[in-house]
Amino acid sequence: MLTFVGLGLYDERSITVEGRDALRAADRAFAEFYTSRLVGTSVEALEAHHGVDIEVRDRAGVEQEPGPILDAAEAGDAVFLTAGDAMISTTHVDLRLRAVDRGIDTRVVHGVTAQSAASGLTGLQNYRFGKAVTLPFPRAHGGGDVPASVVDSVAANRERGLHTLVYLDIKVDDGRGPDAGERFMTADVAAGLLATEWPDRLGVVVARAGSPDPVVAADRLERLAGRDFGAPLHLLVLPDDVHHLEADALRTLAGAPDDSLPDE
After folding, report:
1. Is residue 30 classed as helix, strand or coil in its secondary structure?
2. The domain containing residue 7 runs over which residues?
3. What is the CATH classification number for the domain harbouring 244?
């Protein structure tokens, strides 16, 4: 059996009870933290809290060399851990399909996602979000500051009156230790990049969702670019026209000044 378990958003306590039980009952536990991270904890703290040993796999160890994970699942009960929800990334879907191809039973224990947290913390209605995008570090994609694919997706959402969730890039150097070479794009940097395309557009920052002290801040992108939102993880929302309840929520929950809000 291979059980995919989402760890939630922040630390070793963010996992669901069902996920915790699956993790503690497993014969072996694997994890990857290159698609996202639990910034409020460490692998050692996870292991201590749950009384398990966790084998962390890098990108190649999941995508190109999944044999040890699949062998463990074939021989007994294995758990594969990820931050957020277990099946958000196509990497995880691919691993599940490989397991099914080998006749291995699979199941999924879902965790809280950044997308649901962004809606809940900002007051923007979940059904009004369109296609999400990822904003990479400049030149990481071989082009300019904001990839054309991001611009096109935001424009397409806007044509349909939908909000855009912008995930911010994470870079991990897998070859120099568990924390070496990590870089997290921050919301002020992202706002500055996006302001080159839409300087007057409203943006909403969500920082450290799932932590005891999340930050939610709404303003024009060019103004958000000059603020410090503290430690990662950050994400950014580009709302389209907002319902009056959404506007009230952005004023109350995110401190949005009236001159930043689109017409209701």
Report:
1. strand
2. 2-109
3. 3.30.950.10
